[in-house]
Amino acid sequence: MQLPVVALNLDQSGFVPELEQEVLGALLLSGQHSVVRGTVRAEHFIQPVHRRIFEAIEMAADQYGSSRLDLVFRMFTPEDVKRLSDDLKAPLREYLTGLAGYTVGGAGGLKNSVPNLIQQWGRISAGIEADRVRLASTDPSVDAGALIRTATRALDDVAAGLRGAGRSRTRYSLSEAADEALEETQKAMTSGAGLTGITWGLTDVNQATGGIHKGEMVILGARPGMGKTAVALGVGMKAARSGAGVGFISLEMRSGRLAMRALTDIAYDWNIKVPYNDLITGRVNENDFEAIVAAKQDFNKLPLWIEEQPSLSIADLRVKLDRMQDVAAQGGKTIDLLIVDYLQLLSASSRYSGNRNNEVSEISFGLRQIARENNIAMVALSQLSRGIESREDKRPMLADLRDSGSLEQDADTVAFLYREAYYLAHQKGKDPDADMERLDKLAECENKLEFIIAKQRNGSVRTIDLFVDIASSAVRNAVRYF
């Protein structure tokens, strides 16, 4: 049924005003703004008059707990009424009455009309940005890189709005929340490994954390030389071997170098110990090389995708993740775990240019949002402050998180890596006896890696000893080796 008021004109092809009118009418008729709170925003309305009406609906809901027509009309000043009536070429009250009286689906139809409204907003917003890019591209003085970065961020904002609109519900009764929690517990009991999330591939770490959970962010921090890339890659492979789809974003190391680390890690389980550097330089014998080739066949089967590119922004990372999801879907998989190596190499927007603390805060928040919006587990590697090097005890603490306190705040879990052997290998004793003592201690802890859980929202903090062979990029459960 056509709304019996003067039609609204908007210079935008493909715009269907009836979609906006249906949503507004349902809210005015039912007075139930709460059903769209957090999903529909004023910006989703392309027509300015409709945007202003929705703002009045929100105001009425906040003040009176209802978006009933008579309450909404009170939110307009006399000046608003005159201006909007002029724009409509019809009395505002008459237009609002028409919206409420001629809604097709009412409140029950919002489950269909709201997604259609937001899809229209996304489509038109993308078209507006495309027109802006086309127009700007005709100017020879425009920097192409800057144009692409601005367009990417603008389109990412639209994509984020669409993802948010498609998000599952966020409100649960206590009973429903308890059911969900008990279901996780039952899965953990069935698995026998205490897992409610994706496996770390490390028994003691799994028992301490319950795994890596979807929708959450883990910060894995360490100073250089501690083995954080080896740990992250090993975790990614073990998670992939368990059936999870894994994306690895490398902002520092080339994908070929990562693949070589992965191959030496796989061969290590076959008791083939090939140092990573020997593989790079070709110092391997024929038997070891054949083992590495066999390891590649094993690696090829894993649902693990590596993306190497420096200086990615959060917007770029979202695009990379979407592409990974498309590739994974072709093989019947999804990306369940995303590993970022490492977060300080991500580029922040120009909004906080020059303020490193705010830049890292923006990056940290963006990574957490990606995890929540896509319902994936996020492991973000982080460099730690150089201040550690000036301490006698160089085990990391939360205060060592570099550049921003937001890393601790945004992360659901913060873990650190520490290898005493690294420091012992770079020291010298004050005299021959002291140096002999240092070498004895080095031999004792050469393969020891401490996994320090410094923060865990849903568990205790503790330190877990792991086995590491840095040369072969192999990280294993300590009980097997010590």
What does this structure look like?
- The protein is of the alpha/beta class and 482 residues long.
- The chain has 2 domains: 17-165, Orthogonal Bundle (DNAb Helicase, Chain A), CATH 1.10.860.10; 187-480, P-loop containing nucleotide triphosphate hydrolases (Rossmann fold, 3-Layer(aba) Sandwich).
- 50% of the residues lie in helices and 11% in strands.
- Strand 7 (448-456) and strand 8 form a beta hairpin.
- The longest helix has 28 residues, at 110-137.
- The chain is elongated and about 95 Å long.
- Spell out the helices and strands N to C: HHHHHHHHHEHEHHHEHEHEHEHHEEE
Radius of gyration: 28 Å
**Record field, number of beta strands:** 9
Overall pLDDT level: 82
The structure class reads alpha/beta
CATH class of the largest domain reads Alpha Beta
**CATH H-level homologous superfamily name of the largest domain:** P-loop containing nucleotide triphosphate hydrolases
Number of helices: 18
| Termini gap | 77 Å
Instruction: Give the strand order of the largest sheet, numbering strands 1, 2, ... along the chain.
Output: 3-2-4-5-1-6-7-8-9
Helix proportion range: 40-55%
**Global shape:** elongated
- Number of spatially distinct domains: 2
Low-confidence stretches: 1-10, 166-174
CATH architecture of the largest domain: 3-Layer(aba) Sandwich
Q: Quick one: biggest sheet?
A: 9 strands, mixed
CATH topology of the largest domain: Rossmann fold
Q: What portion of residues belong to β-strands?
A: 5-15%
